[in-house]
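Worked example

This section walks through a single chain of length 164. The input is the sequence exactly as stored; nothing has been trimmed or padded.
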Amino acid sequence: MITVGVGECAVSARAEDTLVTYGLGSCIGVTIWDPEVKVGGMLHFLLPDSQGDLAKAKEHPGLYADTGIPLLFRKAYQLGADKRRLVVRVAGGAHVLDGEGPLHIGKRNYLAMKKVFWKAGVMIHGREVGGAVSRTMRLEVGSGRVMLQQGGAEAREIEMRHCA
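Given that input, the structure is written out below as tokens.
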């Protein structure tokens, strides 16, 4: 089990590995998986945009959608993944702290992530975003299964579907 903390990303080409991140509230977890070479990766980003603190973004790029997502993809490419084959699933973006208030970081995170993907020509294949719950997300590198768990509920898979 490889734990991915807030502002971190990890990739693996070991079929027996599982990547996991906890406490996805307004943060967003991004998983990518290449079914041909069995390379998987996960990012847990905190904020939508690094422009407010470029020095911090340089030191900790995984904190932000605009710097963390490209980092995750580059790391996967180094292990042989190909962008055209990647299966992308995302979770989080809840409004757990500020509700529907003016900050609504979860919604801003989701929109920033979609913008990064759109610019890169990347499609989302499964998602569970929004709501007011914290989630745990797991990626099984060998199978590409992405499992979500909320509170004490049973884990369930994020199903594959095209998401705009």
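What to look for: Helices lie at 54-59, 65-78, 105-120.
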